[in-house]
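Much of what follows relies on a compact textual record of a protein's fold. Each token is a code from a learned vocabulary of local backbone shapes. The record below shows the convention in full.
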Amino acid sequence: MYHGISKKKHHINGRHLFASQFEKHLRYFKNNFNVVSLNEICLMKKNNVKPQKHTVALTFDDGFLNNLHVALPLLEKYQIPAAFFICSINLKDRSYIHPADYLDLIHYKKNTNVKIGEEIFVDNKNTLVRVTDGMTANQYLNSLSFNDWNATLFNLSTSYKIEEIAKDVDDETYKLLDAQDLKKLSSSPFASIGSHCHSHINITQLKTNEINEQLTLSKSKLEKLIEKPVCALAFPYGYYHRESIELSRIAGYDYLIGGGDVKKEFEGNVFPRIGIVSAGSYARNMLSINAGFRRFGF
């Protein structure tokens, strides 16, 4: 599980890997693994196929613009497929920024006494935490109902103007694909498109109708745009529960993707992933990938 691949120096979070390190990953995969599409590896797991060689599939979450301009050319160079999970909310609004990235921009520009709703958050070891109990800003956002989440994001956007908090910050760290960008990405034989829900939100906090809208709206918008079926769903933040799994099946998703390990009760319904972060060195990330096979790989 990757997020962004950047060419330049980035500061606001660890979700973007440098292109030079990503290319080393691709060379390592090419030399040591059987690299297949997400659809193929999910079918293998579903049918309990045991390949003779360690097999991996690559995925990208969140739909950063650098997926098209930096990651895709490298994937095409090494002829390695990848799946890209996209939130449909940003397709018509180039100014949209995922909540986690918005918080990171605020933190980067103003790292003390950040007000989110009625709560005060301060910097603690490079993380925004609530002064009352140490809850992180992301945890706080992910605990909100849909209405409160929307209201909080609106208040953030009015209190911390994007033109101010993003000033002097490389837009590689937060800029997302729009509709035309996604059409270009999906036209590559090495790119498949999956859903990341309509909004980047913790759907376990939503009501049934709200979850259903997140799932169906995203699928319909993506399929209409790329003119291809969207069969896979990656849950935002890796949060899911029994109801979201059941509603995802009803919505027509064949493959449901988590953010890491999968609890025993959900095995067979949700596929696990190994996360890659820029904070880890090349060697550490490769060791993490290999260790993943001992947990849940083949």
Notes: The mean pLDDT is 92. The chain has eleven helices and 13 strands.
